[in-house]
Each structure stands twice: as structure tokens, then as C-alpha cells.
Amino acid sequence: PTRRSSDLGGGLQNGLIALAALAARPALRVVVLERGAALGGDHTWCFHADDVPAAAAAWFAPLVAHRWDGYDVAFPTRQRTLTSPYAAISSARFDAVVRAALAAAPNARLIFDAEVDEVAPGQVRYRVGGATHTLTATTVVDARGPQATAVDAGWQKFVGHELALDRPHGLTRPMLMDATVAQDDGFRFFYVLPLGPDRLLIEDTRFSDGPTLDRAALADAVTAYAAAHGWTGRVVRTEHGCLPMPWAGDVVAPTPGLIVGGYQGGWFHPVTGYSLPIALRVAQTIADALGADRDPAAALAPLVTAHRAQLGLAFRLTKMMFRWFAPPQRWGVLAHFYRLPEPTIRRFYALALTRGDRARLFVGRPPRGLSWRAVFGGAPAPLAKELT
Hints:
By secondary structure, this protein is an alpha/beta fold. The protein is 30% helix and 29% strand.
């Protein structure tokens, strides 16, 4: 093979790139460097079935751990069942599938416990144990996550428990957002995924002004929510996170020999943190280029332009949510959003809005809780005393 790829970080973005690239070019030389002992961390990634393009269907399918025919949302003023097929990838499934693909490829390597010291186009210096190594590659993909704290940002914080229940729960589809709960610490909702007849993942999620995550308090809240619904059992797994939701930034344009991927590269959804469709588009674009023996950095240029346009609108929406609405009123933004047609909702989550979708976002009465003082006076909504 004439090309070699080095992926820094074994998270969602680089795992997808490795799978897509090896599907397009099985003999490709691929090296994945991961600082931990497993791939994908401890996460659950959800997506709409339409997020997966036909070109990716075959290599992507083994990742899917759960599928549902739709999902529910609930707000104080609106409840809705959506019929868009929905699915999830578990970190355990992700780790197993990517490991197997790399092990089966003749020229692929997976290196754990790797600490990266320096990244340059076509070159990486890293340490394993006490030894320093230098790796050269035609293309380096750096997707190690955000390397700096966002200044102009809100925060998405969550704690989740996977429960093995004493009895079947009876749910047939996920509750994507249950915002009928007390609106503590910003926009707050519970996220419930039925992973089996007697297994649930329940997360307390908050769109907050600050990054402080009280894991114990949110864990207690998950336990209380489960008890209120009659769900009792034991915790078999936990997950937690604190992700910046910025309203400023840009895509890091690829250069020959170096692609900055994932969150660090601007390939994410600032309003929702829903990153899988975007990561999938990046992975398939890179794979298509490698399959045709073209430079993947150059092949990403049109996608950078398209994503940059989508990102600009998403940044504005994020700023509106955090600056124009007081924390207890932010649920009105999402309740207002879920009045839209399902295709628009799917494209919004995929960050692939059409011109018509953009118009629909702003047609009609404004969301409940909008602070006109914040809109016209520039004051952040938490400081405004009068809310409409």
C-alpha cells in the first residue's frame, strides 16, 4: 500500500475512520494510538437510521447494539411520539468491532496506553511506558477531543446508570427527553433507553451555565427518577460527561498530512452534542479518498465548506438558548423545536438543514420564556428580570 494513516485517539471519530478506511482499502497501513486501555471510552451514541448513508451501511452495521421504531419526548406543554427509526451504539460494542477489524487487517496496529507528545503533518511522537517512539504516516488524524476549555459556551452535563431491573419495564421505545421534571441547573431532562426487557439506561442531562458536575447529586436524581417510575434493580454500569456547548468557533481546515477530527476539529453539533452523523460523514469522505488513492485532506475540502455553513447557524442557536432564556425557561426552546416536521428534526440532529428547514426554525411565535430584554439589550437572560 502506498498510503498510511495514523489515528490519534480511539474514540468515535477515529474508530469510524478506521472501519471505513479498511472497508475501502483492506491492505491500508493503519495505526491507532489510544491513551487508555479500551476504545470508545464509556459512552452510548444514538442516531436516526437515516443518518447512515448507503455507502457506509455494510461496514457500519456491526456497530449497532440496539434499534427501535421511534421515540418519545415530553415537555410541560408538549408530548410527542416520533416514528423515525432510532438506534444506539454501546462503547462495549464499539470497542469489540473496531478491535476485531484492526486485528483482521494485515497492516493495521492498535497501540494502547500511548501518550502523544507532538503532532505534525505526517508525523507523531508518542510514549508507551518509558519509551519514546516516532511514527510517520501519509495522513495523521488527530481526534483526541477538545484540547482547550471553551470560553463562550454553555455546558452539557450528564450522569447515567444502566440498570438491571427486578422485573420487565414494559417500554418499547426510548424517552429521548423527559423535561417534565424540575428544571434545576438549566434545561434539564431525563433520557431513558430500553436496552432489553429488564434493562434500562437512565441519564439525568442538564444544559447548564457552568461546568461543575456533581456526580453524586445527579446519580441520586437518577435513582429517584427510576423509583418514581417503579423501576428497581442494580446498577451494572455508569457513564458521565461534561461537554462544552460553544457559540463561537470554526472547523479546523485539513492540511496535507494532518486532519484535525472530532470535537477538536469542529466536527460536532454545538446545540445537541449529537456527533455521530457528522463523524460518519468525515469517515466516509476519508475512506472514499483512500479507496481512490487520493489525498483525504484535499477530499474533505467540500465537506468543510458545507459543515462550516451548518455550524454557523448552530452556533447562533446555541447562543440564543443560553443568552436569551433564563436557565429554568430553556426547556421552551426544545419544546418549540419539537413542533416541527419529523424530517426537519432528523436533519437538524444530523446538522444537515436545508434552506426550508432553516426557515421553519424561525416561523411562528417565539419560544416560551424568551427574554426581550436580553434580545434587544444584550444582557444575558439569567440577569433579565422580565420574561415574556
